[in-house]
Amino acid sequence: MSEIKRDVEFGAGTAQETLAPEPGATQEKAITGRTPWQLARARLRRDKITMVVLAVVALAIVLAILAPILSIIGVLDPETFHPELIDGNTGGLPLDGGGGLSLQHPLGVEPGTGRDVLSRIALGMTFSMTVALSATLITVVLGTVMGLVAGLLGGKTDFFISRIIDMVLSFPVTLMLLALSGMFIDIITKAGVPAGNPSNGAYIVLVLGLFGWPTIARIIRGQVLSLREREFIEAARSLGASNRRIYFKELLPNLWAPLLVYGTLVMPAYISAEAALSFLGVGIKPPTPTLGNLLTYSVNYAAADVTFFLFPAIAIAILVLSFNLMGDGLRDALDPKADR
Amino acid sequence: MFAYVVRRIFVGAIMLVVMSLVTYLLFFAAPSDPARFTCGKNCSPELIEQNRKALGYDKPVFVQYGQFLKGVFVGREFPDDPELKKSAPETIAECPAPCLGYSPLQSDTVSSLIATAAPVSISLALAAFILWMVLGISGGVIAALYKGRLIDRALVGSALIVYSFPTFFIGLSLYIFVAIKWQLTPIPVYTSISDGGIGPWLYGLFLPSLTLALIYIAGYIRLTRAFVLESMGEDYIRTARAKGLTQRRILGKHTMRAALTPIATVAGLDLGGLLAGAIITETVFNYNGLGKLAVQAATTYDLPTTVGIVIVAATFIITANIVVDVLYAVIDPRVKYS
User: Fold this and answer.
1) Per the domain annotation, does A10 fall within a domain?
2) pLDDT for the residue A339
3) Which of residues 292-311 of B touch A (CB under 8 A)?
4) Does the pLDDT at position B107 exceed 80?
5) Cβ–Cβ < 8 Å for A273, A290
6) Distances (CA, A) of B15 to A164, A219, B121, B312, B322
7) Running DSSP on this structure, what letter comes out for residue A116?
8) B275-305 residue pLDDT tens
9) Which structural domain, as residue segments, surrounds residue A250?
10) Architecture of the structural domain at B115-331
11) Is A89 contained in some domain?
């Protein structure tokens, strides 16, 4: 696959259904039925790695939400230049010959400008995750609608949607995102989005969503096709339930688990995609920081200022790894029988 | 079987035609004027008009697409003007079939641009493919055999961590540190086999293909591990063990055979997607393959070249899909053609 759209369907190992009684639970207690969500929660609690990455993801989200607020009240300072911390004679490298790490600037200062790296990475996370999350939402909503429609209506509609899915999946995605950017950013700007970074950001979100939905649609369609034949649908139908009730009350609740899992796995792919597109020159541009454009800028100083090259990359890697592991953990918890 | 293959190829061909139409419309029916992008900075109104006529952009977009299709099958000439051909044949650019268009910015036919760049991308893709298949599958088998032990966790974990870094970061780290700063390998430069022989060709390919392979290895380790574990739980493996076969024979003859089938499918699709160029890796290592050509075309608004590469890439992907499905049916006798 192209390098951006990473395959999100890899699973690990076989899940084992070992629901030993929880510590502290009394054995004499009568056996009570547990809802699927309760079962999933119990399984999750036993999965230490997933609990850790859940905490990391939660922390990242809190940090991403707080970063703009902290920047306004002055705790983080991503914009102030510190010419006194960089050396004009070496092309703007930090004065100490390393990354300029200090108590005021725990991750150092940016070569060339002297801006605080920690603040820029924190705010960069805000923008990167906003882009990735918006694109994920579009992907999931579009994928669900198309998958549901194809699976439920069947016949010609299904054929038509399935061919569109095949076609979109056959496009070289990275190349399309790159090649369409000039033209589509123009169109987005003309449609009233402010020129510059708002348009660039909107473009990334839109095209990632537009090229990303087929995978989800395929999964949802498959789920609908198999659920449609199950006894509980037949039971509902024989009780005289309307189509509407069957779609929304019987089918949709069964789709939450795969949607949550695949949504979680799309997110890291889009965080990587934002970085890759930044490297190719598409997307949100400095001075607005994103993890992608920070890393792209740091490439110029890779050999001279190693810490500045490493920190944005590590930030991206931690996010991507945590979301991927979280997706795997959720899948094991929600769908232990999943075919992998 | 034969009927199945024919039908798949037929459907694939139709899909390709539809895709090329969609691509063509996306780039040439956009509100921006394609002729304006044909001459870069030295555009004058006269030159724009001249190019517009020469490339056929003055005609309706569906007629243009018809000419494009005609070019693919029988070739065409730019400008398509019989009178001019008589009076000044030297001003006409011949574009023999399969003609994917003419790039005025590069003063060359798109087909010949692609033909020059393709060997680089194909070499890179194949080298990476071999690396990741060998390392990924052996890693996956080892992880499965030592399931739950330290070596399993280390393999799966480190592969996942590498996978989490952006491709260009991995590529640039290898390039800047391994090749330039520490000089552990020569600086990767592509040398074709006809220029330097097999040795320099492989030498030049090492770091770029390693970069690409590192991205894929994580997936293949996990995939192999999962399939090997799954097939090790099957009844026929217990039978094999019960009749006294050695561990080695069971793994080689029974487990791997079942596990390799699904891996072959995924591998075929991944390779098909890579043949048309690894955009980021080629950009990082400055390899003049299809990926780099595509980036160059996209950033200079070289629409004919962009469209050409998109169509070539789609052809590779669609072909890989068909090959994989047919191959799957050949490898796995349980699969029915439908």
Assistant:
1) no
2) 42
3) 294-295, 297-299, 301, 306, 309-310
4) no
5) no
6) 10, 22, 24, 13, 12
7) B
8) 888 899 999 999 999 999 999 998 888 888 9
9) 42-78+106-333
10) Orthogonal Bundle (1.10)
11) no
ipTM of this complex prediction, to 2 decimal places: 0.86
B220-248 pLDDT tens trace = 999 999 888 888 888 888 888 898 888 88
Inter-chain CB proximity B166 and A272 less than 8 Å: yes
Domain ranges of chain B: 2-111, 115-331
Here the contacts of B184-188 (C-beta below 8 Å, separation 24 or greater) are B188/B285
* Three-class secondary structure of residue B93 per DSSP: strand
CA dihedral B157, B158, B164, B165 (to 10 degrees): 170
How far apart are the CA of B165 and the nearest CA of chain A, in angstroms?
5
Instruction: Collect all residues of chain A within an 8 Å Cβ-Cβ radius of residue B314.
Output: 170-172
Cβ contacts (< 8 Å) between A170 and chain B: which residues? 15, 19, 314, 317-318, 321
* Residue at token pair 């293949």: B220
Residue A224 falls within a domain, yes or no? yes
Q: What residues of chain A, 126 to 155, have a C-beta less than 8 Å from chain B?
A: none
Note whether residue A26 is domain-resident: no
Query: How many domains does one find in chain A?
Result: 1
User: pLDDT at residue A6 above 50?
Assistant: no
Q: What is the pTM of this model?
A: 0.86
pLDDT in tens, A37-86: 788 888 888 888 889 999 999 999 999 999 888 888 877 777 778 777 77
How far A272 CA sits from the closest chain B CA (Å)? Answer: 6
CATH classification at residue A196: 1.10.3720.10
Which of A166, A172, A320 is closest, CB to CB, to B164? A320
CA-based torsion, A273, A275, A280, A282: positive or negative:
positive
Query: Closest partner residue to A172 among B22, B266, B276, by Cβ?
Result: B276
